[in-house]
Amino acid sequence: MADFKNYIDGKWVEAKSGATYERRNPATGELIGTYARSGPEDVAAAVEAAKAAFDRWRKLPAPKRGEILFRVGQLLIERKEQLAREMTEEMGKVLTEARGDVQEAIDMTFYMAGEGRRLWGQTTPSELPHKWNMTQRRPIGVVGLITPWNFPIAIPAWKIMPALICGNTVVFKPASYTARSAVRLVQIFEEAGLPPGVLNLVLGTGETVGTALVQHPDVALISFTGSNEVGQQVAVECARLGKRVSLEMGGKNAIIVMDDANLRLALDGIVWSAFGTSGQRCTAASRIIVHEAVFRELADQLDARVSRLKLGNGLDPTTDVGPVVSESQLERVHRYVQIGVEEGAQILTGGQIARDGDLARGHFHQPTIFVDVRPEMRIAQEEIFGPV
After folding, report:
1. CATH architecture group of domain 2-248
2. In the annotation, is 282 catalytic?
């Protein structure tokens, strides 16, 4: 167990209030650590540090900024296995998926490091005599990045690396469930030689830290990944304040299986898309639309395949599906299963919270498939964000 702190102006510091919270392994219930529970005053300190560092960082030539990112990428490669194992302990996804999460961050880091030599502007013909027109890319200032728990290294990398290579400074607010992964990523930046104040980390809840970051007048842009409900609130607030905003929110994705489909390939795609990351992805397949000619055959094969998926700790190489991230998420997922039954849908397989043996220590829900689902049902309309 360890204590995880904020990183502000190049220093690891506790929340100004001294408040903390705990995080436990969703598969085993074991305590992972205690984390700073920050407030608006911590956000203000981080933004101040980022604002002060901006002028120095934007004037550092972009290829030099890229050299720091290249060092970050190399350190990510060296620590890939450690980062993946800690990610699995923290949020539950199976180890092979966690390794893929880190690999996405590695790829993005090297990609953006190379962009340090490609931040081109444009030249255009002038409509006036003796005039020359050109454009130049310039950073916009302090950016606030709010990231979710389902991809706790990859999604921060998607946001942080482009922001930094373009000369912006960053205040990074990770999901409270996966703050250790965020700390590890920032530690790598520190080791790679990123100057103080360029990247700042503030731990805590979205309601407190996220809101303060969105509303701070010195934050020029917000990039948010999370739920539709919260994303819409962020969009409205940024519009009110005149901030730039980038949103990645929820989905209710369908896989369409036609009568001439290769059902073996369809099964592979459905099972991976629906139950990878325990269904906790905005890109997960949560609806399957099947031609009537192959419906029964596909349903039977899915029943057989999904009923064999093994629930368990993601560090166990025989595990197919890990836990959901928290007790509250487990209750949310199972409530949707109950709603589906109440609406008249039929459970083909699964449908229960798993409480057998070691599974009782964690937050496990059986992989579940419904049939006889009408388009107007809530389970066909609303994002469940679980293995259903």
Report:
1. 3-Layer(aba) Sandwich (3.40)
2. yes
